[in-house]
Amino acid sequence: MSWKPLGSVLPESLEAARLDLHWATQLVSAAGTSLLEPTADFSHTNLAWDKSLGVLAGRPVGGSALRSALVFEGLELAVLDGDRERASLALAGRTVGEALEWLSGAIDADVPLLLPTHDMPDHPVKSGAVFTDAHVDGRRELAAWFADATALVHAVVDGDPLASPVRSWPHHFDVASLMTFDPDEDPEEARSIGVGFSPGDEKYNAPYLYVTLWPYPHEDDLPDLEDMVCWNTEAWTGAVLMADVILSMPHDEQQERSLRALRSAVQMSRGLLGV
């Protein structure tokens, strides 16, 4: 498992780049959202980090099984034919509508492409403005975070028959896998543990790794975690490992210590859930 250097841009300075990419990701998701059979869990809309190409790619669509994808650093919308780039479009200077029209033609869609439907943070492109080529350093840094974090999540869940595939979800722009321990129970009652990564959100304006558990235990029942990990108990309950904590470690220890922290949090969560 390779580990890309992190920290060329301070974590708290990544918000603008993150919002650009979050909105651009909706374009990637539009192919699966519009052309695949809808699923109850909305997995037809999700994406995955392609570690060989270094892009965030959607699901194969159409008879040719083409994939839409996003190149973070160049802010480029691409169409992939297997592991080969078939076409690409620089988003700078283009609106969401123009990009959707291009993508529709590039993947030979037989119906108009629509963005996934969910709440999104404010951004100029929401009102018809064009994407810009600003924040290239931040986009490059977030590509490194996505690559490293996705590899960590895989290392935690791969081989676990209860874990879902590691996917990126366009709503929260996160990467996650969910271990479900009571598959025959109502989803609201079934015990589960999620392992994932967020590039930042309304609560934490910086990247972080997390382990969540459901049902949420009472705050008084939460055990002490390792010094570098803390519990989040507002809106959701889970262990959080923040970017600045990871960057405070020596580079050659970041991967191993982050993985150890995630595995430890999963083990504690199993104990809390009794699984």
Word description of this protein:
By secondary structure, the protein is an alpha+beta fold. Helix content is 30%, strand content 21%. It has 5 helices and 11 strands, in the order αβββββααββββββαα. It has a 6-stranded antiparallel β-sheet. A hairpin with an 8-residue loop joins strand 2 (55-58) and strand 3.
List the helices and strands and how they pair.
Elements: H1 15-35, E1 47-50, E2 55-58, E3 67-71, E4 76-81, E5 84-90, H2 96-106, H3 136-157, E6 167-169, E7 174-180, E8 192-198, E9 208-214, E10 230-232, E11 238-242, H4 243-247, H5 251-273
Antiparallel strand pairs: 1-2, 2-3, 3-4, 4-5, 6-7, 7-8, 8-9, 9-11, 10-11
Helix pairs in contact: 1-2, 1-3, 3-5
Shape summary: globular
Oligomer: single chain
Strand order of the largest sheet: 6-7-8-9-11-10
Summed over residues and divided by their number, the pLDDT gives a mean of 96
Helix run count: 5
The N- to C-terminal Cα distance equals: 28 Å
Number of strands: 11
Strand content: 15-25%
**Helical coverage, percent range:** 25-40%
Give the H and E element order: HEEEEEHHEEEEEEHH
Residue stretches low in confidence (pLDDT < 50, at least 5 long) are none
Cα gyration radius (Å)? 19 Å
Based on helices, strands and strand pairing, what is the structural class? alpha+beta
Largest sheet: 6 strands, antiparallel
